[in-house]
Amino acid sequence: MLAGAVATQFATVFGIWFRGFGLPQLNWPVANGELILGLPATAAPTATTYFVGEISHFTDGVFFALLFALLFHPFVPLRNTLLGNLIKGLLYGTVLAIISAAWWVPAVYVPHHAGFLSTSLGWKLTFGIFLWHWIYGYFLGTVYCPQPQDRLEAVPEQSSAPETETIHAAPGPV
Fold first, then answer.
1. What are 104-154's pLDDT values in tens digits?
2. What is d(CA 149, CA 37) in angstroms, rounded to the nearest whole number?
3. Over the stretch 151-172, which tens digit does the pLDDT of each residue have?
4. 27 SS3 class
5. 157-167: string of b/e by CB count within 10 Å (b at 16+)?
6. How far is 141 from 4, CA to CA, in rounded Å?
7. Helix/strand/coil (H, E, C) string of 66-130?
8. Is the CB of residue 95 less than 8 Å from the CB of residue 102?
9. How many other CB atoms sit within 10 Å of the CB of residue 88?
10. CB atoms within 10 A of CB 82
11. Are 140 and 65 in contact (CB under 8 A)?
12. Can you give the pTM of this predicted structure?
């Protein structure tokens, strides 16, 4: 859950900063807030729109991180090293980006046919969608970094029961 919170926060901030890099701003909290509150995308965003959308967006980010940890990460046949986990995170981000560009953005956010992976909305938007999800995957894969399986096997099992000491009776007079 921590990895999901970190990944979502960093990706969200970068998406809002994309305009400074010549990409469209991807302000998913505002987009979600407009959807939840039933506001048109042309409405000026308010603090309420942002915070309602941020709660939804942040919850989604943590939920998708849990799916990564429980359903995706264990089944990708890469070792649990920093590099292996990073690759798993980037692969997961790519899967989410494909879903976002192919379905979520054209069907929900911009309700019209947007072309293959939203390309008719401009290559910069499609690239931004992928970059946003790669940033999410980068932080998800580097923060959620379980120990390698071989290290887990090398650690001897320890009993959770407290150690006990046997007290022997002192020899008495015979």
1. 887 776 666 777 778 777 789 899 999 999 999 999 999 998 876 555 455
2. 46
3. 545 555 565 555 555 555 556 5
4. coil
5. eeeeeeeeeee
6. 10
7. HHHHHHHHHHCCCCCCHHHHHHHHHHHHHHHHHHHHHHHHHHHHCCCCCCHHHHHHCHHHHHHHH
8. no
9. 24
10. 12
11. yes
12. 0.77
Residue 139 region by backbone torsions, left for phi larger than 0, else alpha for psi between -120 and 50, else beta = alpha
Task: Report the C-alpha gap between 52 and 135 in whole angstroms.
Answer: 23
pLDDT tens digits for range 44-85:
888 999 999 999 999 999 999 999 999 999 999 999 988 999
Question: What is the token pair recorded at 119?
Answer: 């390309």
Q: Which residue has the tokens 């798993």?
A: 88
3-class SS at 89?
helix
Is pLDDT of 38 > 80?
yes
53: tokens are 């959308």
Distance CA 64, CA 87 (A): 17
Taking the C-alpha atoms of residue 140 and residue 13, their distance in angstroms, rounded to an integer, is: 15
Residue showing tokens 């899967």 = 95
Question: Six-digit token pair at 112?
Answer: 């019209």
